[in-house]
Amino acid sequence: MLSNTFNSPAFNSQLDESLDELSLLLDEEDWEAADRLTADLLLETVIQNYNEATELSPEPEPRHRPHLTTEALAGLPCQLLHALDDRWQKASGGHFGFSAQLQIYAATLETIDFDPALRNWSTPHPFFEEVGWLMLTPLRPIGFLRFYSWLDFDLEAPRGHLPALWYWRVPRITSLQMGGFLTGQGGGFGDLARLDAMMLRLSRCHQLGG
Known about the structure:
By secondary structure, this protein is mostly helical. It has one domain (2-208). The protein has helices at 9-27, 31-56, 70-74, 78-92, 98-111, 126-130, 165-168, 172-177, 192-208. Residues 14-172 form the GUN4-like domain. Pfam families: GUN4.
């Protein structure tokens, strides 16, 4: 379990420092830097757990660079998600954060008829449109996600717009497979499996309360 990483004093110390840095960035409304640090912290947790599992494995599998895959998102530590979300909520007055994204995700599924089996550009997940992640230009159809640099890093953005890099950061080959241009999730189709995995994890952590 990824939560095992929280048993390491060294990791906890580094995490506390990074969370303090995140608070400073959010207080200064440096939303993009805060988003990048948030994604880094999530990924570092995955890498830490991966390294520990590899060291303990008697017959380690070939090493691959860890990413925020569906499996990794589904196992993120609730403590970390709550800590990150709490800072985003407080700094943005509830406008940004994982809680805002989870609320929007749940609301869209309750009010909008969406068939996840229709995986094409004309049927993007309603969540993407609600949080302002879709590419609304004549360059590409509406079902493609915006490039990361095209996101709105200010409070004028739609509610739940940030954090976002946790979703955008994917391997280059995955970017190509999703229709992108080696730039992460941007310019490609939305990956519903990763979105669902994160939202289900957030929901579970909310139910557990910690």
